[in-house]
Design goal:
The chain is an alpha+beta fold. The protein contains 13 helices and 17 strands. A five-stranded mixed sheet has the order 12-14-15-17-16, covered by helices on one side. The chain has a four-stranded antiparallel sheet with strand order 3-2-9-8. Strand 5 and strand 6 form a beta hairpin. Helix 8 packs antiparallel against helix 9, helix 9 runs parallel beside helix 13 and helix 11 runs antiparallel to helix 13. The longest helix is centred in the middle third of the chain and has 58 residues. It starts with 10 loop residues before the first strand and ends with a strand.
Length: 540
């Protein structure tokens, strides 16, 4: 692959995808923000227009102009809301007209006094309270509307009524010392929870007057669906416009990247069919040039990966052949000796000697099968370690103490360096970690003569525990050191031709499953010719 900076290269950098996309997206973002602001302000303006209510003074003027008490032509829904209605009372508070015949309200002159005027300069509020003795009373509050820099209400009077609605305290003119329940209902304004009442005094030409009681439905006045319809309409139009713009924007981006993408597609086909890139002429953003170069690197890595896979497959096949050979040889010996014993022609001494050989061969076969099974299990995705937190120093000390007598019986010395009372806490699988120790020590025993010293040590360094196992035997050849942990170093390629070749591979898998690492120390300044180092992270 030619370097893109080479003057003879067929790939010429022209800008970058990043700058191209950023510029286009900035333009798109500005347009979308402007559209969105237009949508929001349009919706707000139109909703505000929808909230504008007819001037109530127009309605009052129409009501004053009514003749012969015929108020049926008043546009009540427009001014008072869907559920609003009016009542016209004479000077004695008798109802002479009601636009809603289903209502059965009753008034007294005193009750009308507590209905707020249209200009709402003052209003009354009543609530039911309970004394310490459990008796109910009414608290009537009068509020005055004040308009200065802001509009607010102040308390201008209070009165207290007992449970029988009798005035027991008042600092304002209540008009009576006893109230009826109907009058209380008028004051509370709860006679109709869909509306609230306001009054307007109509002065007649003969000097008398009438009360116009307007029951306003503010909910329907401000929630008649117009705002929602306006919102839906404005946002629908806005979304359609934005979708159209986004479609045009996508077409623009598509046009800008379609050509290089087609080139990349052709390159991928070349890579798939021929395993290499054709190195065509290409002029475009540096990112696409980089992708093509990356394709070339990828193809090289894929070839190397395929070579490794083939080698691994060859190694596996060789392993199976060697395992078959290693199983066939002891099986032949076991079968031959078994037939001799079965024939009855062998002496007791011969039978004892052949039985001993059968046991040794069977033990070797068992070790081979167990190692192969364990290696396969460790490679399985379903394999899980049984991890628990513990003092790994105590654990290692106990293991070495148990191993001491066994090695001594076999003719090997054990030298160890384990600090007293040290506490190195880690999370580990006791069974599998012990297996890794066993495999390393077993290799030292298998490949060295009796009298060889076995070495074991443990220490800590920063946030890790360091475990070293080795021997002062014959050592390991340089040819084997570089791939000593590979799983298929078996047969006569191993130290002295002994073992299954899977022991150290199993050690590596177990240690790495503990988030650790294991290595063979290349050269040591001590007497230990072979020294393995296991590093496992400590825990708090």
């Amino acid at each position: 692959m030619k370097n893109k900076n080479d003057e003879n290269s067929k790939r010429v950098v022209k800008g970058s995808v990043y700058s191209m996309i950023i510029i286009n997206y900035l333009i798109a973002a500005v347009i979308i923000v402007v559209l969105w602001l237009i949508i929001i302000h349009s919706s707000k303006y139109l909703r505000g227009k929808a909230l504008e209510q007819p001037d109530i003074q127009e309605f009052l003027d129409q009501a004053v102009a009514v003749k012969d008490n015929d108020y049926s032509n008043l546009d009540i829904d427009k001014y008072l809301g869907k559920n609003g209605y009016i009542e016209v009372l004479d000077g004695d508070a008798n109802i002479i007209y009601s636009s809603d015949k289903s209502k059965n309200n009753k008034y007294t002159k005193r009750a009308v006094k507590f209905i707020p005027d249209v200009d709402i300069r003052s209003f009354y509020y009543i609530e039911k309270i309970y004394t310490e003795g459990g008796h109910s009373e009414y608290l009537v509050s009068k509020f005055k509307i004040v308009e200065e820099e802001d509009v607010y209400s102040i308390l201008s009077g209070v009165a207290v009524l007992d449970g029988n609605r009798k005035v027991i305290y008042s600092n304002m003119d209540m008009g009576s010392s006893q109230f009826t329940q109907a009058e209380i209902n008028v004051i509370t304004g709860l006679e109709d929870d869909m509306t609230y009442a306001e009054k307007y005094v109509i002065n007649l030409s003969d000097g008398s007057w009438r009360y116009l009681i307007m029951h306003l439905d503010s909910f329907s006045k401000y929630n008649d669906g117009r705002q929602e319809r306006i919102t839906v309409m404005v946002y629908t139009v806005g979304i359609i416009l934005m979708l159209l713009f986004m479609g045009l924007f996508a077409l623009r981006i598509s046009r800008n990247v379609k050509k290089p993408l087609n080139i990349l597609e052709d390159e991928m086909k070349e890579l798939t069919e021929k395993g290499k890139l054709s190195d065509p002429y290409y002029k475009g953003p540096r990112e696409f040039v980089g992708i093509i170069n990356s394709f070339d690197d990828m193809s090289t890595k894929l070839r190397k990966s395929e070579d490794r896979r083939i080698k691994m497959e060859i190694d596996r096949q060789k392993m199976l052949m060697d395992i078959s050979h290693d199983l066939r040889t002891p099986l032949t010996v076991i079968l031959g000796y078994s037939k001799l014993i079965e024939s009855g022609e062998a002496s007791d001494t011969e039978i004892k000697e052949m039985s001993s050989k059968i046991v040794r061969k069977a033990g070797y076969m068992q070790e081979l099968v167990e190692n192969f099974f364990l290696f396969s299990k460790l490679e399985s995705p379903q394999f899980r370690l049984e991890m628990e937190r513990g003092n790994i120093c105590d654990y290692f000390r106990e293991y070495i103490a148990g191993k001491y007598g066994e090695l001594e019986d076999q003719g090997y010395e054990l030298e160890f360096d384990i600090p007293e009372d040290a506490e190195f806490y880690a999370v580990f699988d006791k069974i599998q970690l012990q297996r890794s120790f066993e495999n390393i020590i077993a290799n030292s025993v298998k490949h060295n003569e009796k009298g060889t010293k076995i070495y074991a040590a443990i220490s800590s360094e920063e946030k890790n525990v360091i475990i070293r196992l080795g021997d002062n035997g014959k050592g390991i050849s340089k040819d084997l050191r570089k791939n000593i942990f590979d799983p298929f170093i078996i047969g006569d390629e191993a130290r002295g031709g002994k073992g299954t070749g899977l022991g150290l591979s199993i050690v590596k898998k177990i240690v790495e499953a503990h988030s650790g690492r294991v290595r063979l120390i290349e050269e040591t300044q001590s007497e230990w010719k072979t020294l393995f180092e296991i590093v496992i992270p400590l825990t708090d």
